[in-house]
Amino acid sequence: MTAQQPLAVGLIGAGRMGSFHAETLAHRLPGVRLAAIADPAPGAAQRLGDRLGCATTYTDIGELLTAPHLDGVVIATPARTHAGLVEAAAKAGKAVYCEKPMAVTLAEADRAIAAAADAGVPLQVGFNRRYDPGFRAAHEKIAAGAISTPQLLRSLTRDPELADPARIPPWTIFLETLIHDFDVLGHLNPGAEPVEVSAMADALVRPDFKDRGLLDTAVVTIRFDNGALATAEASFQAVYGYDVRAEVLGSTGMLTMGDIRRTHLTAYGPDGVTAECVTYDQHLFHDAYVAELADFTDSVRTGRTPSATGEDARAALSIALAAIESVTSGGPVRVGKPRDL
Asked: What is residue 170's DSSP assignment?
């Protein structure tokens, strides 16, 4: 790649999130080119490539990883495949952006981080809330001491509708949903480390699937080494919309972030006060999803460290695994070396 050539990025995974990232690479980032798409599902990569004008598509992911013309890859496959693909991409000399979670065990996370370090390539993980303007501004204010020492923190994720429960792997609520909240809580308490986790979870939306391993509702409490206490909660069914919010109370003030309203329009009528709500993550975090890939591609060009690293992903995973262990054991768990799944 020269200064005049666009950055060539390949996409692995042509599903819902992969398609959005493909559109960003193809149309939303100047100086970036969607150069190849791979998906093992027959026809998936080609259909997406045809729609976006990307002629190079594969059903064999290994063929994409060995393509010499790619500067980096974006991984948007099912969660349990992420760590292995990060390793393979790094060993192929490609810069790596990986959707969350980067891994589901600490051993996987360590191998992925080591592979990127050994290859000398950037490794970024898709914690999109770090790139949302409100969450970003809150982090900057806290880091600058605007509310002094964080004391109480809260983060929540409520999806608008439960997906097919038969297709949700065990512990998804911790490993794929609350993983965002665990990252956010650490990001909003800069310099602090989690030391203890306690969690409760149940199947309240679909109790008939509990015996198959589904947990659709959870609350987690986290104690940090600076004394701050945090809560994270998740539900797979908030009928009013896609609800993501956070709050940090410090010794000299409070910050809140997140707004479920589609616009700032509020309607007042005979039936009361109403507002239209966002019901889809790609609508609520559209600009953040674009910004995180802008950060990734810039880090590939410049060699700087991206804003959400493999180490950040490992830190959030350690909380998720401690939460799983807490649910299993029925008590608090010290963070540091929770049991892998």
From this structure: T
Task: Phi first, then psi: give them for residue 337, nearest 5 degrees.
Answer: -135, 60
| H or E element that contains 147 | none
**Bigger pLDDT: 2 or 72?**
72
CA separation for the pair 139, 296 (Å, rounded) = 19
Q: Check residue 3 and give its pLDDT.
A: 54
Q: Report how far residue 128's alpha carbon sits from residue 266's, in angstroms, rounded to the nearest whole number.
A: 27
% of the chain residues with pLDDT over 90: 96
Distance CA 51, CA 66 (A): 24
- Measure CA 291 to chain center: 13
| Predicted confidence (pLDDT) at residue 11 exceeds the cutoff of 80 | yes
Q: Which of 183, 245, 180, 172 is nearest to 205 (CA)?
A: 172
- What CA–CA distance (Å, rounded) separates 184 from 128? 10
Annotate 270-313 with DSSP letters as a single string. Answer: TTEEE--B---HHHHTHHHHHHHHHHHHHHHHH-PPPSSBHHHH
Cα angle vertex 125, ends 127, 322, to 5°? 75
Residue 262's DSSP bridge partners are: none
Cα-based distances in Å from 290 to 171, 219, 327: 28, 30, 35
As a whole number of angstroms, the distance between CA 152 and CA 171 comes to: 26
DSSP 167: G
- CA–CA distance, 81 with 104 (Å, rounded to integer): 9
pLDDT > 70 fraction of the chain, expressed in percent and rounded = 97
Q: What digits encode the pLDDT tens for the residues 210-221?
A: 999 999 999 999
- In the three-class reduction of DSSP (H, G, I as helix; E, B as strand; rest coil), residue 187 is classed as helix
Bridge-based pairing of strands 123-125 and 95-98 is parallel
Tokens representing residue 112 in the block:
């992925």
271-316 pLDDT tens trace: 999 999 999 999 999 999 999 999 999 999 999 999 999 999 999 9
